[in-house]
Amino acid sequence: MPMLDDDEFRSVTGKRLLKDTKMPLREQLAPVLKEYNRVTGRCETNVNAVYHHRLSMYGPPCAKCGKPLRTPRAKLCGSCMHPVESAA
Ligand SMILES: [Zn+2]
């Protein structure tokens, strides 16, 4: 399943309609799936899968450049190659 980067994730999940208690959650989230499928070219039908496939289950921001580390266990910043001091 394709992962989404931060911009894609924001774009996709931003399609969620405003909270409307009269509308079933499934329908509120339908545009999220539609956008996800547009971005990835998939036919995903489970919106939970979209939320679980955000690429950034990221680490903390880089101490040097402030970009989020690619993973919580990254030893190097993917953007500026600054070593992560606190890597266990
Ligand atoms: Zn960095």
Please provide a brief summary of the model.
The chain is mainly alpha-helical and 88 residues long. It has three helices and no strands.
Q: Could you please describe the fold and organization of this structure?
A:
Helix content is 34%, strand content 0%. The chain folds into two domains: 6-52, no CATH class; 58-88, no CATH class. It has helices spanning 6-13, 25-40, 47-52. The longest helix is centred in the middle third of the chain and has 16 residues, at 25-40. The chain is mainly α. Helix 1 packs antiparallel against helix 2. The model has no long low-confidence stretch (mean pLDDT 79). It has three helices and no strands. The structure holds zinc ion. Zinc ion (ZN) is lined by residues 62, 64-65, 67, 77, 79-80, 82.
DSSP helical segment count: 3
Structural class: mainly alpha
Give the names of the bound compounds. Answer: zinc ion
Shape: elongated
Number of strands: 0
Distance between the termini: 29 Å
Mean pLDDT across all residues, rounded?
79
Stretches where pLDDT is under 50 for at least 5 consecutive residues are none
Instruction: State the domain count.
Output: 2
Secondary-structure element series: HHH
**Helical amount:** 25-40%
What does the radius of gyration come to?
16 Å
Biggest sheet: strands, sense, closure? none
Strand content: under 5%
